[in-house]
Each structure stands twice: as structure tokens, then as C-alpha cells.
Amino acid sequence: MPKITAYKNTTFSIKSLLQDKIFLSVVKIVCIALLLYILYQQLFGREDLTLHGLLVLLQHKTTTQNLPLLLFVLVLMPLNWLFETHKWQLLLQKIQKTALLPALKAILTGVTVSLFTPNRVGEYGGRILLVNPDKRYLAAYASLVGILSQWLVLLLGGWWAMMAAFSLQLLPIGTATFGLLVVIGILLTTFLLLSYYRFPWFVKRLGQYRWAKKWTSKLPKTAIPYYSSIELHRILWQSFLRYSTYSFQYFLLLYFFGLPLDYFAALLGIFIVYLLQTGIPLPPSTGLLARGNIALFIFGYLSPATTTVAPIILAATLSLWIINVLLPALAGGLFLWQYKRTD
Questions:
Q1: Predicted TM-score of the model (pTM)
Q2: Are 343 and 130 in contact (CB under 8 A)?
Q3: Whose CA is closest to 107, among 335, 342, 307?
Q4: How far apart, in whole angstroms, are the C-alpha atoms of residue 21 and residue 295?
Q5: How confident is the model at residue 35 (pLDDT cuts 50, 70, 90)?
């Protein structure tokens, strides 16, 4: 009788690949290498403003009178991420209880991953890595709610700031176009608020499409009405606090470097810049130059001294990126390197 040889099932699967220690080590090394390369390019490889140029400008602009502005920006950085950490805890409170430190690690890991993804989408993917494997589908649902809450604040804040700038004739626009944009703003506000507060309804509708059916089918039925109106209010409030914090940081940096502009006009300009930046499908690393150009365009209209505004805006934009993204990304890179699979 011929001998029967048994073979193991060697069918390839993404799940088995992600569980391989060697593969995860390679991914970590690649991510850290990319992180260091991107940071080098942004700090030393830029043509408009390098780290050396920024340091020279900082030395020139730092005085006894405006030094507190820079120190306050630095103090607000951890507050910015603590607001985001608390929001992530609120999003996960019915999925997986998470203490402050693990939640902060997840947030900073997400910042690192977001450097390689358009519009910082990877920020939420990085966070999900640190959620228990059996809860990741629910965490993905929670992430969508968090993304929508931040987009709600960004889009509505920026849109109505732009309408205010048009109304005050700080930015040029025709009367008919302005009226049309106001109507669009009302419709947009209504749609975004309904989308946010009726988000479970949208998830159910997504389940009707083949590309989303697999994900939605793995959500327990109790996961769909996860957040009450009060909980959604609290999540939205954390998004607003974070938005206010990094907008105020930008405001302080602009005046630290000497922006010749009225305070109210500067705030409107900041909100508009963030609105337009949201529409750029680029990672925060490679998109930094484009974001600086948007700020130059908006503040070029708002400021009467256009020729002197460029170095101020570029310095403030790069400084804010270093403080709010680079430093947290370095910490997140360390946490990513320490990550071990729990599957």
C-alpha cells in the first residue's frame, strides 16, 4: 500500500502574515526608516525654509516681550494631544476600557503612522493596533465617529469663517457667489450634523454595499446605537477643544514671528487655512509645503504688507508642524517599535 504523506495547509492569508514576528519587525524597521527620512527632508531638504533658517529666524525674533508666546505654544502641545486622548477614551468607553497612558500611546502611534497616509487617515489605523484584536472592528466604527466629529468642527468652523471674511470684505467675492456659498453652507451644516448624530443609520446603509458588507456584518447589533446624543456632544466638544487649541497655537506663532494683521482677521485666516488644508489629499509630511502655500495665499489677501508676510507664515507653519507633529511622531515611533502583536 503506497505511503500517504500529509501536507500542512500553507494557504497564504493576510492575517497569518500579520502574525509573523519577522514580518512585523520588517514593517517596524521600514516605518522608522521612512519616519527619519521624512523628518530629514522636512527639516533640511526644503527650499523655502530649512531648520537652520528657522533657528536663525527664531533667534532674531525672540525678545523678552514675545518669548512667553513661544513658551505658551509649547505648553499647549501636550494639552492638544490630551484632548485627543480623552476623546479616544470616550470613543472606546463601551468597547474597551482604556487608561490615560495606553490611550496616549495609541494616539502618538497613530501620529507616526499618519505621516505616510493622506489626510492623516492612518492616525486612526495606528490607534487600532493597540486595541484588543477581537474589538478592532468596533474600534474602527469608533474611529469613524471620531473622524466625523473632527471634520464637523474643521469644515463648519472654516466655512463660516470664510463667509465672515467675505461679508467683512476681507476677501474678494461677488454678491451672487457669496449668496450661493451661504446657501451651500446651510445645506452642508445640516448634512454634517445629521450625518454625525444619525451615524448608525449611515452604517446600516453601508452594509447594503458589497465593499462594506464584510466589515458591517462583524459589528454586533448592539454596536450600531453605541453613542447617545449626550456622548456625541461630549465627543464633539473634545474635537472643538482640540481645534481651538492648535488654532490658538498657530495664532500665537504668527504673532511671535511678527504678523502685521488684526487679531480677528488672523483668526478668520487660520480657520480658512485649516478648511482648505483639509481638502488636500496629502500626508502631513509631503503636504507641508502645499499647506504653507495655502497659508501664504490666504494671508497674502488679508495682510496689507504682503512682501513681508511670506517668511513669517512659513516659519509659523513649520514651527507648528515641529511642535505638534514631529515631536509626538518621534514618541509614537518609539511606541510603534515596542509594539508586539496580541493576536
A1: 0.80
A2: no
A3: 335
A4: 44
A5: low
